[in-house]
């Protein structure tokens, strides 16, 4: 544009050039007044598209649960609304864009050309001698030459004007693209600033030794703003290898929160200190919800190891087989067609099988400490017991989060979180092996009696019915 303007100014003279700049100014004002907020529109479009895609992903992931609840039409309704919101927005952008592009084309193609022709005409109309033209020194007396000069000036100016309009159009397109880029950048900026405002993962105070210990630690939900919610106050405990801990308490009292602090996902609140053995062999957590990785059957057991790490570890497939046997999953390789079978394991394996696979991972990695967060709730008691005994025989110290009293027998310490709103807790020894056996027997007896409760209730009802019939 600068080049074309400077070329044109040679033809137009000072007044013409000034008027050309007035034209630029007026055009810029008009276009600025009619330019929609393309940046904001692009940011909203990106957000709506994100919501829609997240909804699609959620339905894909949770399809079975949705089907069990017969929630298909409800989900379709939610997705349909998200889709309509997106489409409505995209359509409104198209309408705005069409109106804007028409205006822009009209202004740049027609207004600029009209203004340009008027400007070219000014010297012709206003100059008395009419000796305009970029070629000077031509013999003015020769009329033919004058006509030729004017024609040449007109044609070159016209070309310059067309090129100028073209350059102006490109500039406006670039401006529009820049606005859209700014919108997307704003969205990315929001995401990144959200990530940056997250508190960094806690730096472990000590990742040495073979002991897990919490010393005067407050466990609470981290808050980016405001005061964090403290679930357990002033918690102190120390676990050496072989000292198995069971954490219990009602739902939502903060059992998993303690596991998160132990695993280093949440920082300990207050002035407390967390110590645990470092490295991969340190604390391994098996979460409440089973996770199946994309990949082969073998990948499920060795996760988060890669195949290369598995080979490097020197472990054989026979050893993997015995790991699966310890988790009561020995039938899987033959049933599924071998170690390298790829399937959607999340859907293929049952709830209990997925939980047992979680335990197989513990046996494979053999960490010093394993936090088992209600990860055997869908496994039958006998297999659960076998897996606990096997983990202990591998030298793994267990930190179990559970509401099942029957699991107490595998532990030496019991942490009970009160959930009284004050963050109270108690830590007690579960007892000697003999005492634990006694407790086991008592638990089994109670569990057996509990299993009979339904039958007794049924009998009471029958008797009541018979009595009321006799009285009548
Ligand atoms: N990421 C989070 N953001 C906000 N609140 C959370 C978060 N995680 C947990 N909480 C809250 O902290 C409390 C304790 O949660 P936690 O998962 O530790 O409970 P829990 O004792 O393991 O329960 P359950 O036995 O049901 O598994 C709950 O009230 C929960 O809503």
From TrEMBL:
TM region positions: none
Membrane recorded as keyword: yes
Keywords: ATP-binding, Membrane, Nucleotide-binding, Transmembrane, Transmembrane helix, Transport
Gene3D superfamilies associated with the record: P-loop containing nucleotide triphosphate hydrolases
GO cellular component, as recorded: peroxisomal membrane
GO BP: any one term: very long-chain fatty acid catabolic process
Source organism superkingdom: Eukaryota
Pfam families: ABC_membrane_2, ABC_tran
ABC transporter domain: residues covered: 214-445
InterPro entries per UniProt: AAA+_ATPase, ABC1_TM_dom, ABC_transporter-like_ATP-bd, ABC_transporter-like_CS, ABC_transporter_sub-D, P-loop_NTPase
A molecular function (GO) term: ABC-type transporter activity
PANTHER family in alphabetical order: ATP-BINDING CASSETTE SUB-FAMILY D MEMBER 1, ATP-BINDING CASSETTE, SUB-FAMILY D MEMBER
Family per record: Belongs to the ABC transporter superfamily. ABCD family. Peroxisomal fatty acyl CoA transporter (TC 3.A.1.203) subfamily.
Name of the featured protein: ABC transporter domain-containing protein
């Amino acid at each position: 544009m600068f080049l074309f303007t400077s070329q044109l100014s040679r033809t137009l003279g000072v007044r013409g050039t000034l008027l050309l700049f007035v034209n630029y100014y007026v055009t810029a004002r008009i276009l600025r007044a009619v330019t929609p907020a393309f940046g904001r529109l692009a940011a909203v479009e990106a957000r709506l598209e994100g919501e829609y895609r997240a909804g699609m992903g959620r339905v894909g992931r949770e399809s079975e649960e949705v089907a069990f609840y017969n929630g298909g039409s409800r989900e379709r309704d939610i997705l349909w609304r998200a889709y309509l919101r997106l489409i409505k927005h995209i359509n409104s952008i198209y309408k705005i864009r069409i109106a804007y592009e028409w205006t822009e084309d009209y202004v740049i193609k027609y207004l600029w050309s009209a203004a340009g022709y008027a400007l070219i005409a000014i010297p012709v109309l206003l100059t008395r001698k009419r000796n305009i033209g970029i070629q000077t020194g031509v013999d003015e007396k020769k009329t033919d030459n004058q006509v030729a000069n004017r024609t040449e000036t007109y044609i070159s100016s016209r070309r310059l004007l067309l090129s100028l309009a073209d350059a102006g159009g490109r500039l406006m397109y670039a401006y529009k693209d820049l606005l859209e880029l700014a919108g997307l950048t704003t969205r990315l900026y929001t995401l990144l600033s959200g990530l940056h405002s997250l508190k960094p993962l806690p730096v472990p105070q000590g990742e040495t030794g073979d002991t897990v210990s919490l010393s005067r630690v407050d466990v609470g939900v981290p808050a980016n703003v405001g005061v964090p919610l403290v679930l357990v106050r002033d918690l102190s405990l120390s676990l050496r290898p072989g000292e198995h801990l069971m954490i219990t308490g009602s739902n939502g009292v903060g059992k998993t929160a303690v596991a998160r602090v132990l695993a280093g996902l949440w920082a300990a609140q207050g002035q407390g200190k967390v110590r645990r053995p470092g490295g991969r062999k340190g604390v391994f957590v098996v979460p409440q919800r089973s996770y199946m990785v994309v990949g082969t059957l073998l990948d499920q057991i060795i996760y988060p190891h890669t195949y290369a790490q598995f080979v490097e570890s020197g472990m054989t497939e026979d050893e993997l087989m015995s790991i699966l046997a310890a988790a009561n999953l020995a039938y899987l390789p033959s049933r599924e067609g071998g170690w390298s079978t790829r399937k959607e394991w999340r859907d293929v394996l049952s709830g209990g099988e997925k939980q047992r696979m979680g335990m197989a991972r513990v046996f494979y990695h053999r960490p010093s400490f394993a936090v088992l967060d209600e990860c055997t709730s869908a496994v039958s008691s006998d297999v659960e017991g076998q897996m606990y005994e096997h983990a202990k025989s591998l030298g793994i110290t267990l930190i179990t989060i559970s509401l099942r009293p029957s699991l107490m027998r595998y532990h030496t310490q019991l942490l009970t979180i009160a959930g009284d709103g004050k963050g109270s807790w108690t830590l007690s020894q579960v007892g000697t092996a003999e005492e634990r056996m006694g407790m086991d027997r008592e638990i089994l007896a109670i569990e057996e009696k509990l299993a009979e409760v339904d039958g007794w209730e049924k009998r009471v009802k029958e008797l009541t019915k018979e009595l009321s019939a006799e009285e009548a």
